[in-house]
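Case study: Capsule polysaccharide biosynthesis protein.
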Amino acid sequence: MSRVVSVAAVGAAIAALVSQPSYRSVLAKWTGVNAPGGVWRILALLFALMNFKNLPFVWHLRFFKAYWYQIFFQPTPIPPHALFQPVVTQTHAPLLEIDFNMHKSNSTYFADMDISRTHLFTSIMRGGIRKVSQGGFHMPRASNKSATVAAATTGLGAADGTESKGGNTKYMIALGGVQCNFKKEILPYQKFEMWTRLLSWDRKWFYLVTHLVKPGVGKPASYSLQPWRKSKRTEDVDPEKLTGAVFATAVARYVIKRGRLTIPPEKALFDAGMVPEKPEGWVYEGGDVEEMNGHANGHANGHANGHVEGVLPEKGSVDWNWDVIERERRRGLRFAEAYTVLDDLHGVWTGGKEGVLGEFADISLLYR
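Here is what the predicted structure looks like once written out:
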């Protein structure tokens, strides 16, 4: 009610100003509304402002804003025990992202998730990427809108003696694939949050999971990179309410390359200071996935009712050692292994051996 009263008061004040002839003349001169085509220029400006997120090169601005801030301007060092914590980013669905069903087009989800994953991955890999500056900084580049970070570094992979000499060897962090499940539609100009965290890793790939959710449903208990923020959590949120707030869930995988050489994720995390060195002769002796989650049936979500707590770091895990890290990595790896099965689909394409329905051109100025 108070918000409605405030909006009404602002509207009344603006109307009072506009009713004054002197203000009307100044406003008309400043906006050019009386000039030929002035109204259309104002409408075009308003349309651009309402869809600023989708203007040319704004995606690049969003990407570099996330990259530069997390690498060079983030004031708080990331604690290693925050390795599996999510980054939360907020955005909305402007008109240019709406399809003919009057909700956010599925294809636009991926551009938004690029930004969220950039925040997350540069946060946890900051220690390794910052070593770029020690040997001379090389401008990061994105090969396309799906690539998150490409950087020349002297640090990533240093744990196995692959560090570059002279800072000339380029390391690239590249996106290797995304799989997204859509659950609910996002309406025009509806706000939503993206919660992105490290899910797991194997010998080659990092796996990141992103949940697009209704804003305000998640209540963070703490903010590792923003300790000045107060906790919003007063009590546990009902699991059904959490699940009902999800618009979509996506899993993406990244690989770190040094030329043709793949840098193992574990070594990159060690170089970034996010995991300790493994004790000599260490062997994981924890329970299997079903035992860790208290279920013998091995549901992929950790609970038969869809509760997501089973794949998140356990509360009170303060002793940051490889037993804790490996337990959380294996929990997420169940989802990652299901995702990697899709790699075999590359071999299903036959190249038209059994014939095709036809060839049909899309709208393009480059091809006929």
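For the exam, be able to explain this: Strands lie at 87-92, 149-151, 171-182, 191-201, 206-213, 246-258, 261-263.
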